[in-house]
Amino acid sequence: MNNVLCSSEELGLKPTYKGKVRDLFDLGDKLLIVATDRISAYDVIMNEAVPGKGAMLTKISVEWFRKLDGIVRHHLITADWREFPEPFNQEELADRSMLVHKTDRFDLECVVRGYLVGSGWKDYGNTGAVCGIHLPNDLIEADKLEPAIFTPATKEDDGHDINVGPADAKKVVGEEWFDILKAKSLELYKFAEEYARSVGIIIADTKLEFGVYEGELMLIDEVFTPDSSRFWAASSYRPGATPDSYDKQILRKFLDDQGWGREGTPPTLPPELVTRIYNRYAEIFEILFPGVGGR
User: Fold this and answer.
1) Could you give the 3-state DSSP secondary structure of residue 23?
2) Over the stretch 110-163, which tens digit does the pLDDT of each residue have?
3) Superfamily for the 8-104 domain
4) DSSP conformation class of 246
5) Nearest to 40 by CA among 137, 161, 174, 134
6) 8-104 and 105-249 have identical folds
7) pLDDT tens digits, 240-252
8) What residues does each domain of the chain span?
9) What is the pTM of this model?
10) What is the 3-state secondary structure (H, E, C) of 178-199?
11) N or C: where does the chain have the smaller number of CB atoms within 10 Å of the terminal CB?
12) Which residue from 200, 14, 175 is spatially nearest to 108, judged by alpha carbons?
């Protein structure tokens, strides 16, 4: 594992904005995004960090951005710390940082669901629909949704993002942009899901973020990482139960098993769990991008 970095302030850098796991620096027309080793679940930051997690997340995003060249404009300029402006050209930021274009961000999480799991499965059980989209009445847990569905959520600075239907989403971004965001999100999911299947992985669902740069749509933030997507091994997939996943679901399960109410001080994470979380992130990187070099 890489050395742990819980905050950019440890390097003498004061972020413009601190998210749950990322520190952002506003450089005018650009942003520097630093992925720390903080980890969150249910919108609460854990007391323990996962050493190396920030670097692993960044490397996964960078490889996906490279694969998506030609399909969508994205905000990545460089992930090479030696090309960062001062005082950010520090080797301690290697692998865990990206210099990106600053866009006018849409305040909408573009969620694509290809399988009936998680909150979608619960919603379906209660209403026969997922985020207001009615589905056949004979589906079971982890069934493949054909076609995949677009279920956006509003981005909230505090608390949980809120699932919204098309009408409310259009109020946030406008009807024309809504149609563009929906089409592009489904296109990107289809491309990524087909690529992942070629290496034995299913992407069950994902969330994407977009902005506008020079009048054009631009993919931003992270993309198809274990923090934003649900990955399953295709070999173990069977409808009827949610398979083990290569993401932080093992953290959520631990917290749920502890009876934590998803508020207040979270339980202490055992060292062996922290190691397992990192290993799951590293494993999915190595499976998705063999030969790139991970750990």
Assistant:
1) strand
2) 999 999 999 999 999 999 999 989 999 999 999 999 999 999 999 766 556 788
3) Phosphorylase Kinase; domain 1 (3.30.200.20)
4) S
5) 161
6) no
7) 998 889 988 899 9
8) 8-104, 105-249
9) 0.93
10) HHHHHHHHHHHHHHHHHHHHHC
11) C
12) 175
